[in-house]
Design a protein that fits this description.
CATH class of the largest domain: Alpha Beta
Number of strands: 13
Largest sheet: 9 strands, mixed
CATH superfamily of the largest domain: Spore Coat Polysaccharide Biosynthesis Protein SpsA, Chain A
Strand order of the largest sheet: 5-4-1-6-11-8-12-10-9
CATH architecture of the largest domain: Alpha-Beta Complex
Shape: globular
Bound molecules: uridine 5'-triphosphate
CATH topology of the largest domain: Spore Coat Polysaccharide Biosynthesis Protein SpsA, Chain A
């Protein structure tokens, strides 16, 4: 049984400056809902209600978002806006959310190490706070199913273009089933020739408490940070690790282009926006085509 989840959300978000100078990238909205709310919803939809968010400097709004806002609720009640009022109540009661601050930004591995007392001897899920995965079955649930079957650390992977393998952590191993691989290799950002596959780590994990021992021994790696992939590599030698090929589409909201694409795709799926927004997109493309013909 996986009962706890850890959401690292302390990072600086340098790829999304300047907006991330004074606000967390995890609060950037997909239309009207912050990224972190989708991530918390994925935990809840996977049966996890005990969530530890790794927060840090300049991230207070993450706590405020999941807190009660008495003034706002009173105003909505006065306006008799039942739908929004209910939505706000839902956010504050979504889950049992705890926060811990990562005082120095020493990398994702270090962020997860901050969860050692909260998670104790239990396996736990990790969901990157800037990554949303759109799927029918929540991806964390897909990983839990795999953990329950194989009893080992699980890493979510997705297929990426061979030309892009050098941007990701890439896994290699033997197939246990059509979607599960027993790993024998884990390489951070390999070049195309080195890459054992085009399966990339996708921002979701089920980790066992053994990860904390590995993280203690992990030296600073790329960017002078404690890298989770380095700790997993160490663990791979002592313990089994499986990778699950996820069914779903991943959006990295820490990246400006992915953020734009996510906004468009999600707007086209929203009943309250789809028709008007599609019309706007079609008109925009027609105008672009027209301009190109004329110039
Ligand atoms: P990223 O590497 O995408 O976050 O980490 P970053 O460091 O903010 O990114 P850039 O490159 O500067 O834009 C993935 C997740 O891990 C968290 C981030 O908040 C993000 O959700 N993280 C990263 C931490 O919690 N602590 C860290 O020290 C680093």
């Amino acid at each position: 049984m996986i009962k706890k989840a850890v959401i690292p959300a302390a990072g600086l978000g340098t790829r999304f400056l300047p907006v991330t100078k004074a606000q967390p990238k995890e609060m950037l909205p997909i239309i009207d809902t912050p990224t972190i709310q989708y991530v918390v919803q994925e935990c809840v939809d996977s049966g996890i209600e005990d969530i530890l968010i790794i927060s840090g400097k300049g991230k207070r709004s993450l706590e405020d978002h999941f807190d009660k806002n008495f003034e706002l609720e009173t105003r909505l009640q006065e306006k008799e806006d039942e739908a929004l009022y209910t939505h706000l109540k839902h956010i504050e009661n979504m889950a049992n959310i705890h926060f811990i601050r990562q005082k120095e930004l020493n990398g994702l591995g270090d962020a997860i190490y901050h969860a050692r007392f909260h998670c104790g001897q239990e396996p736990f899920a990790v969901l990157l706070g800037d990554t949303v995965i759109d799927s029918v079955i929540p991806v964390t649930q897909q990983l839990i199913d795999s953990y329950e079957q194989y009893g080992q650390t699980v890493i979510a992977v997705e297929t990426v273009a061979w030309d892009n393998v050098s941007r990701y952590g890439i896994v290699g191993g033997d197939n246990l089933s059509s979607r599960v691989i027993r790993l024998n290799e884990l390489i951070e950002k390999p070049n195309r020739e080195q890459a054992p596959s085009n399966l990339a780590i996708a921002g979701r994990y089920i980790l066992t408490p053994q990860i904390f021992r590995a993280l203690e021994k992990t030296p600073r790696g790329k960017g002078n940070e404690i890298q989770l992939t380095d700790a997993l590599q160490m663990l791979l030698k002592e313990d089994g690790i499986t990778a699950t090929l996820i069914e779903g589409k991943r959006y990295d909201l820490g990246n400006k282009m992915d953020f734009l694409k996510t906004t468009v795709e999600f707007a086209l799926k929203r009943q309250d926006f789809a028709a008007e927004f599609e019309e706007f997109l079609r008109e925009t493309i027609d105008r672009l085509d027209q301009d190109r013909k004329e110039h």
